[in-house]
Amino acid sequence: MTSHHSPTHQYDFQSGEVILIDKPLHWTSFDVVKKLKYQLKIKKIGHAGTLDPLATGLLILCTGKMTKSIDQYQAQEKEYEGTLVLGKTTPSIDLETDFDSETSIAHLTPQKVEAVRENFIGEVAQIPPMHSAVKVQGQRVYKSARQGKTLALKPRTIFIDTLQFNDIVLPEVHFRVICSKGTYIRSLVRDIGESLGVGAYLKSLRRTRIGNFHVDQAYHLENFLATVKEASL
Predict the structure, then answer these.
(1) Same domain assignment for residues 85 and 33
(2) Which of 63, 78, 186, 198 has CA 20 to 30 A from 70's CA?
(3) Cβ distance 127 to 154 under 8 Å?
């Protein structure tokens, strides 16, 4: 039961469906869940793996009995493509917050940038971003971050299978990464920027794959709603 059905497919959301959506820019993952829940009157629905509001791409949603599979999907490796910008930082490491530092990158060359890439492949200890949904003492850290409080976050061990710098046109670096669950791409970007001594932020991010599910199989949200409506006529 996956979302690449023929348009005539009758969906059974109560029994359980797996829906692949290409998350729109500026939407939270929860916005997508909420929209489907209300529009399609689904009682039980959840998503497998949050995407930040400024990221797009593959979001797996499970309904009904398929919600039991969420952990299983969440545990699978993920693939992303994105663009980082060197020499500027923001508190959230993306464009959700304003710039808070600027450093000259005049001394950097594509070769120097490429030289640090391999340090981030394999098992890596990574500290989640302050603006994230990680909980410390029962509180989500982004709520504390928005109140100007800093909580001490512990590093987590994650695994980066592949990191490619496909195109280095300074200050921008276009990259592709294949990583384990629990990897924060914003933390990866922050750490690359710090290793080069100039800081960095994430300009754009797209999740292209989770396990065997690819974003090419995903529906745009409005198209999916229209398809379901058509199938129920």
Answers:
(1) no
(2) 186
(3) yes
